[in-house]
Amino acid sequence: MAQKIDTEVEWYLKAMHISEVISFPMNFFGLLVVIFVRKQEMTNRTEVIIFQLCSMLTDFLINIGTLPNILAPYPIIRTHGIFSTIFPDSVKFQILLILISIFYTAATLELMFLLRYQSIIPIGDPNKVSPFKCILLILIVSTFWFLTCVISFIYAIPDLETSRSSFIMASLG
Protein backbone atom coordinates (compact mmCIF):
# COMPACT_ATOMS: atom_id res chain seq x y z
CA MET A 1 0.00 0.00 0.00
CA ALA A 2 1.43 3.35 -1.05
CA GLN A 3 1.59 6.00 1.60
CA LYS A 4 0.14 9.36 0.62
CA ILE A 5 2.53 12.25 1.28
CA ASP A 6 1.19 15.40 2.90
CA THR A 7 1.89 18.21 0.45
CA GLU A 8 0.22 21.01 2.38
CA VAL A 9 2.51 23.91 3.18
CA GLU A 10 0.14 26.02 5.27
CA TRP A 11 2.19 25.50 8.44
CA TYR A 12 5.32 26.56 6.54
CA LEU A 13 3.68 29.71 5.18
CA LYS A 14 2.42 30.70 8.62
CA ALA A 15 5.83 30.11 10.21
CA MET A 16 7.59 32.22 7.57
CA HIS A 17 5.06 35.05 7.91
CA ILE A 18 5.45 35.00 11.70
CA SER A 19 9.22 35.13 11.22
CA GLU A 20 8.84 38.22 9.03
CA VAL A 21 6.48 39.86 11.53
CA ILE A 22 9.19 39.42 14.18
CA SER A 23 12.27 40.24 12.09
CA PHE A 24 11.00 43.30 10.18
CA PRO A 25 10.37 45.50 13.25
CA MET A 26 13.71 44.43 14.73
CA ASN A 27 15.60 45.28 11.52
CA PHE A 28 13.68 48.55 11.15
CA PHE A 29 14.41 49.50 14.76
CA GLY A 30 18.09 48.68 14.19
CA LEU A 31 18.08 50.87 11.09
CA LEU A 32 16.54 53.77 13.02
CA VAL A 33 19.11 53.38 15.79
CA VAL A 34 21.95 53.46 13.26
CA ILE A 35 20.52 56.47 11.41
CA PHE A 36 19.90 58.57 14.51
CA VAL A 37 23.11 57.74 16.42
CA ARG A 38 25.59 60.59 16.28
CA LYS A 39 28.33 60.24 13.71
CA GLN A 40 31.10 60.51 16.31
CA GLU A 41 29.88 57.32 17.99
CA MET A 42 29.85 55.17 14.86
CA THR A 43 32.77 55.09 12.42
CA ASN A 44 31.35 52.59 9.88
CA ARG A 45 27.85 54.06 9.84
CA THR A 46 27.33 53.77 6.07
CA GLU A 47 28.29 50.10 6.01
CA VAL A 48 25.97 49.35 8.94
CA ILE A 49 23.07 51.13 7.21
CA ILE A 50 23.71 49.18 4.00
CA PHE A 51 23.89 45.94 5.99
CA GLN A 52 20.58 46.70 7.75
CA LEU A 53 18.89 47.50 4.44
CA CYS A 54 20.25 44.31 2.85
CA SER A 55 19.07 42.28 5.85
CA MET A 56 15.59 43.78 5.57
CA LEU A 57 15.49 43.05 1.83
CA THR A 58 16.68 39.47 2.28
CA ASP A 59 14.16 38.80 5.04
CA PHE A 60 11.38 40.19 2.86
CA LEU A 61 12.44 38.19 -0.20
CA ILE A 62 12.64 34.94 1.73
CA ASN A 63 9.68 35.30 4.12
CA ILE A 64 7.16 37.17 1.95
CA GLY A 65 8.45 37.51 -1.61
CA THR A 66 9.26 33.95 -2.62
CA LEU A 67 8.74 31.58 0.33
CA PRO A 68 10.95 28.87 -1.17
CA ASN A 69 10.00 25.33 -0.28
CA ILE A 70 13.25 23.50 -0.91
CA LEU A 71 12.53 20.10 0.66
CA ALA A 72 8.99 18.84 0.53
CA PRO A 73 10.02 15.93 1.34
CA TYR A 74 12.19 15.38 -1.76
CA PRO A 75 14.62 18.01 -3.10
CA ILE A 76 12.10 20.14 -4.93
CA ILE A 77 11.98 23.88 -5.40
CA ARG A 78 8.55 25.46 -5.25
CA THR A 79 7.76 29.02 -4.36
CA HIS A 80 4.62 30.29 -2.67
CA GLY A 81 5.25 34.01 -2.13
CA ILE A 82 4.13 37.24 -3.74
CA PHE A 83 6.53 36.80 -6.66
CA SER A 84 4.87 33.46 -7.48
CA THR A 85 1.86 35.41 -8.70
CA ILE A 86 3.97 38.00 -10.55
CA PHE A 87 6.43 35.50 -12.11
CA PRO A 88 4.50 32.20 -11.97
CA ASP A 89 6.70 30.30 -14.43
CA SER A 90 10.09 31.56 -13.33
CA VAL A 91 11.13 29.73 -10.18
CA LYS A 92 14.75 30.06 -11.31
CA PHE A 93 14.48 33.86 -11.34
CA GLN A 94 12.96 33.89 -7.87
CA ILE A 95 15.71 31.69 -6.43
CA LEU A 96 18.41 33.79 -8.13
CA LEU A 97 16.82 36.90 -6.61
CA ILE A 98 17.16 35.33 -3.16
CA LEU A 99 20.78 34.31 -3.84
CA ILE A 100 21.67 37.84 -4.93
CA SER A 101 20.15 39.41 -1.82
CA ILE A 102 21.82 36.87 0.48
CA PHE A 103 25.21 37.50 -1.10
CA TYR A 104 24.83 41.27 -0.85
CA THR A 105 23.97 40.89 2.82
CA ALA A 106 26.94 38.59 3.43
CA ALA A 107 29.28 40.89 1.49
CA THR A 108 28.26 43.96 3.49
CA LEU A 109 28.73 42.04 6.73
CA GLU A 110 32.18 40.85 5.65
CA LEU A 111 33.10 44.36 4.54
CA MET A 112 31.94 45.80 7.85
CA PHE A 113 34.09 43.38 9.86
CA LEU A 114 37.07 43.78 7.55
CA LEU A 115 36.97 47.58 7.72
CA ARG A 116 36.45 47.47 11.49
CA TYR A 117 39.49 45.28 12.08
CA GLN A 118 41.56 47.23 9.56
CA SER A 119 40.79 50.41 11.49
CA ILE A 120 42.26 48.84 14.65
CA ILE A 121 45.61 48.06 12.96
CA PRO A 122 48.21 50.85 13.39
CA ILE A 123 48.97 52.96 10.31
CA GLY A 124 52.55 51.76 9.70
CA ASP A 125 51.70 48.04 9.99
CA PRO A 126 52.42 46.01 6.80
CA ASN A 127 49.14 44.08 7.28
CA LYS A 128 47.02 47.23 6.93
CA VAL A 129 45.02 47.29 3.69
CA SER A 130 43.41 50.36 2.12
CA PRO A 131 39.58 50.57 2.16
CA PHE A 132 39.53 50.31 -1.65
CA LYS A 133 41.49 47.04 -1.53
CA CYS A 134 39.14 45.76 1.21
CA ILE A 135 36.11 46.45 -0.97
CA LEU A 136 37.81 44.90 -4.00
CA LEU A 137 38.74 41.78 -2.01
CA ILE A 138 35.18 41.37 -0.73
CA LEU A 139 33.76 41.82 -4.24
CA ILE A 140 36.09 39.19 -5.69
CA VAL A 141 35.35 36.65 -2.95
CA SER A 142 31.59 37.30 -3.05
CA THR A 143 31.50 37.07 -6.84
CA PHE A 144 33.34 33.74 -6.71
CA TRP A 145 30.92 32.27 -4.15
CA PHE A 146 27.89 33.68 -5.96
CA LEU A 147 28.98 32.20 -9.30
CA THR A 148 29.69 28.87 -7.62
CA CYS A 149 26.15 28.78 -6.20
CA VAL A 150 24.55 29.86 -9.48
CA ILE A 151 26.46 27.29 -11.52
CA SER A 152 25.58 24.56 -9.00
CA PHE A 153 21.94 25.64 -9.07
CA ILE A 154 21.82 25.61 -12.89
CA TYR A 155 23.32 22.12 -13.06
CA ALA A 156 20.90 20.89 -10.39
CA ILE A 157 17.79 21.87 -12.39
CA PRO A 158 17.40 18.49 -14.21
CA ASP A 159 17.66 16.66 -10.88
CA LEU A 160 15.09 19.02 -9.37
CA GLU A 161 12.68 18.36 -12.25
CA THR A 162 13.12 14.60 -11.76
CA SER A 163 12.52 14.99 -8.03
CA ARG A 164 9.48 17.18 -8.69
CA SER A 165 7.91 14.55 -10.96
CA SER A 166 8.59 11.74 -8.46
CA PHE A 167 7.16 13.93 -5.70
CA ILE A 168 3.97 14.50 -7.69
CA MET A 169 3.64 10.78 -8.43
CA ALA A 170 4.19 9.90 -4.75
CA SER A 171 1.72 12.49 -3.52
CA LEU A 172 -1.00 11.25 -5.85
CA GLY A 173 -0.68 7.94 -4.18
Automatic annotation (TrEMBL):
Pfam families: 7TM_GPCR_Sri. This is Uncharacterized protein. The keyword Membrane applies. The chain crosses the membrane at residues 15-37, 49-71, 91-115, 135-157. Keywords: Membrane, Transmembrane, Transmembrane helix. It comes from the Eukaryota.
